[in-house]
Amino acid sequence: MPIGIIGHYRCNYHDMGDHHPESPKRMDAIQDQLIRSGLDYVVRQIDASPIDKNLLNLVHQQSYIDHVLANAPQEKGAIFRLDDDTCMNSASLEAILYSAGAGINAVDLVMNKEISSAFCATRPPGHHAEHDKGMGFCFFNNIAIAAAYAQQKYNLDRIAIVDFDVHHGNGSEDIVRNVFQQNSQTKDKFLFCSTYQYPFYPFEMQASDTPPIINTPLPATTKGEEFRQAITEHWLPALEKFKPQLIFISAGFDAHIEDEMSQISLTEADYRWVTDELKTIANKYSEGRIISMLEGGYALSALGRSVVAHINGLIGN
Ligand SMILES: [Zn+2]
């Protein structure tokens, strides 16, 4: 079975301004490196479809969903500001719906064994979006929506969401704690693991080794060796114990040494390493199924190269 890369060109039209790091150029940087590496011949490239808006309330409060939908600019040149660094232009709503839809497509394709694993190369990202508010370049929590959809549609009992973006996945944690854990149908069915630079945006998380939340803060001086040690000590034992039937990865590449967003110094080899470790867990418990979704990563060349390393890990090259 091939690996699927799911995206849509309309994700490129969401634009928050010339100097905004979460830029359409990120999609081009990934595509360029896929071609350069020859991976574009190996993977199956799949067009995402927009999410059915009725699925957004699997994780989001209806009043917040309505707030985003009602304020989405219709006219060219119009801007709606969600927070200081998150805004919508007239093409954003469409990009938002395709970005969330890619996760739904990935779940169906992987669960129906049409592809072995998926990487969703879409934007905007989602892991900062909480159940009742968007923030930090994120509108809807793409990965939590896809995880909730997978649990419900395929009746899964154990889904892991792991997040190696340099920022804490506060939105995913919020949804696990305040949505999934509060519902008897979804309680204890999700495990969330996050590594992140600390102290750092969004400044609201606490270290935890108690399921369903494994929060692993890393100091700004962290290099690959310390990152690998933290994963080995905190994530892997929790994942072994949980035995996930499906693994979601919030794949952010902004901890890369070339990425000026953070001070942590990872390289492509570290992203390959963590992918290999997760693949080993997936092969053991999840029939190899991994759904990875792009979050951060703003140094364009490093982003493209890191995605290639990550996809090679998913393939097992
Ligand atoms: Zn980030």
Please specify the SSE layout and strand pairing.
Elements: E1 4-7, H1 25-37, E2 44-47, H2 62-71, E3 80-83, E4 86-88, H3 92-111, E5 118-120, H4 142-154, E6 159-163, H5 170-180, E7 190-197, E8 208-210, E9 213-218, H6 224-242, E10 246-251, H7 268-285, E11 290-294, H8 300-315
Parallel strand pairs: 1-2, 1-5, 5-11, 6-7, 6-10, 7-9, 10-11
Antiparallel strand pairs: 3-4, 8-9
The structure holds zinc ion.
The site of zinc ion (ZN) has 7 residues, from loops.
Explain this structure.
- By secondary structure, this protein is α/β, with parallel strands linked by helices.
- The protein contains eight helices and eleven strands.
- A nine-stranded mixed sheet has the order 2-1-5-11-10-6-7-9-8, sandwiched between helices. Strands 3-4 form a two-stranded antiparallel ribbon.
- Strand 8 (208-210) and strand 9 form a beta hairpin.
- Helix 1 (25-37) packs across helix 8 and helix 3 packs parallel to helix 4.
- Zinc ion (ZN) is lined by residues 165-167, 252, 254, 295-296.
Offer a quick outline of the entry.
The chain has 317 residues and is an alpha/beta fold. The chain is 38% helix and 16% strand. It has one domain: Histone deacetylase domain (Arginase, Chain A, 3-Layer(aba) Sandwich), CATH 3.40.800.20.
